[in-house]
Amino acid sequence: QTSRKVQRTLSRIFRSSVKFVKNIRRGVYFALLFYSAEGIVLSTVDDQLPIVEVDDGYPSSLMADFQWLLKVGCTWEDIQLLQKESSKASSSSSAHLRHKLMAAVDAMQSAVGLKDLGQLHYEPIRDTQNSVVIVTVSCVTECHSCPSVSLRWAKIGKLTKKQLANSEESSVGMKQVVAAIPQLIAFNQNRQCNLSRGLYLGYLKLEASVDLLQVVVPLDMPSVLPHVKLRDNPNVSKSVFFAVTIVVVTQSIATCSLLVYCHSRNKNWFLSLWY
């Protein structure tokens, strides 16, 4: 048992070698938000979120690389393999930034002793000083002992008070990150909400650009299309389908076609309007 404690202590010391930033200046950063239902978050000993620097510049390919990172976030455990493969890629500015993003993710994984860093927030946090903070969010069921001597669990209010007390020393970017914690947690919780059993009418509106495809979603349920519930019975008959089609066309709700979508887990049916 003593040897295990020694191993844990040594492991925490080595993990503490990861350098967390105390202030955010111009550049790209990667932040981690681990929170619990009790309003506790994983913070540094300076009462700030764990944040590592990715790049001190503002690359023109940033948003394209962020969209790429969103896909990488679905398989955090393969980050080291992706790093090896990226080293064989071309030396373009895009490949260079992606390699730095993966290095930041790898450093954060080493610092917290976990591969799964949670879900990346759908958009970075920006400030007026050209700093961009990419945040990954995860809810933890139990607040175990911290994996590093430079990390600890703290109340969200403590981080806020620290920023208010050091308002002159704290950067605009750091203030925005701390101020955004409640919104980040709320979004993470809302995206996990499921629809109850029933028949729904959904609305699908797409916005496309050269390197981006976006859909409109409700703020309180971002994992589902905008919708209204028609009834508790999820069964869709041919007559119901054509009745909805006629209403949509005659009311000129949208130039659309109707798609039927089944959510198998809760046995929900979606009649989606394609705009």
How does this model look, in words?
This protein has 275 residues and is α+β, with helices and mostly antiparallel strands. Helix content is 35%, strand content 24%. Helix 2 (62-72) crosses helix 4 (93-112) and helix 3 (79-87) runs antiparallel to helix 4. The longest helix is centred in the middle third of the chain and has 20 residues, at 93-112.
Q: Whole-Å distance between the termini?
A: 63 Å
Q: What percent of residues adopt helix (DSSP H or I)? A: 25-40%
**Broad shape:** globular
Strand proportion, as a percent range, falls in 15-25%
Order of helical and strand elements: HEEEHHHEEEEHHHEEEEHEE
Describe the largest sheet.
5 strands, mixed
Radius of gyration, in angstroms, nearest whole number: 23 Å
Mean pLDDT: 79
Structural class: alpha+beta
Number of helices: 8
- The total of beta strands comes to 13
Low-confidence stretches: none
